[in-house]
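Dear support,

Our group has been running a series of protein-ligand predictions, and this particular one with tryptophan is the one our PI (initials K.S.) wants archived with full inputs and outputs. We had some confusion internally about which version of the output was final, so please treat the block below as the authoritative record. The input we submitted was:
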Amino acid sequence: MSEAPTDTLSSRPRVLSGMRPTGALHLGHYHGALKNWVNLQATHDCFFFVADWHALTTHYQDRSTIERNVYDMVVDWLAAGIDPEQATLFIQSRMPEHAELFTLLAMSTPAAWLERIPSYKDQLEKNRPNGEGATYGFLGYPLLQAADILIYKAACVPVGEDQTAHVEVTREVARRFNRIYSPERAILPEPQELLTATPRLPGLDGQKMSKSAGNAIAMRDGPEVVDEKVRTMPTDPQRVRRSDPGEPSRCPVWPLHQLYSDASTQAWASEGCRKASIGCLDCKKPLIEAIQAEQKPWRERAEAFLANPKQVQWIVEVGTERARAVARKTLREVRTAMGLAY
Ligand code: TRP
Ligand code: SF4
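Confirmed final output from the archive:
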């Protein structure tokens, strides 16, 4: 049906994913996405990009935040172990090709497909009080994402559960485009989402870890900061005194043990909690150490890149040109199919 991408020297299946530059990446980003990216780069032809236009769909008044966060996020990626020799890294706004495909796809995409997306409906409700509703850019968010994906003919899109509706729309958009403009030979392959297997990492308060909720441990938080944040985490509310037995399943600290501790440490912690034979600070200690140990190589790599910002810019420069070559080729096919090759 749809043809496999043949645009690069690589015959590995192509993966594409993006992240919005909304601030320092935290452990939730690492375990929910980045770790998976690092694993994929060995087996797939990976394209990873900074979705700065997507950040603007909601943060259009925060110029400076976005500006500051773009290269910082690339440093976080490199710190996590993304290897620019294996993966192609670039910035969305440096690729006007995405905007052209977005415009062309917009012609044949029913507005109702975008209006029914849950995140759009939420935004509409949220902004109704100030009379603004959602912006036109926000309505187009999933279609811009479709253009991001389809322009590279990506086979797989690693995303969290909150993004599956967008990949689904991408498939519908591709199918409709192919049917209308290229019924003999599908130009735009339908991508599959690659759901990240890691369970969602809760934040310091047990709610979803996010920067805006103020409950995050940043990838680059120093050892003292991690120590302080984990020590002051709330625990099982029924374990008021050291002598009160607790229940790990009621405790926001427990999911961290499930992620960071081996079976014997977990057994030690849950037993010690239920029998009140250990205190909460005892229980947290191996976690603090595990997180600090995980962060150490990140910090070392980040320091090297931060000391050499030109190198980071160069990595993005090379990635952008590599991405552009692929994007241009797809656009040529799309323009021809739509009768715009004059
Ligand atoms: N919408 C994604 C997010 O919020 C970011 C994104 C933009 C993306 N374009 C993409 C992800 C294309 C995967 C593929 O995280
Ligand atoms: Fe939570 Fe550990 Fe304290 Fe139990 S001992 S309440 S699991 S921090």
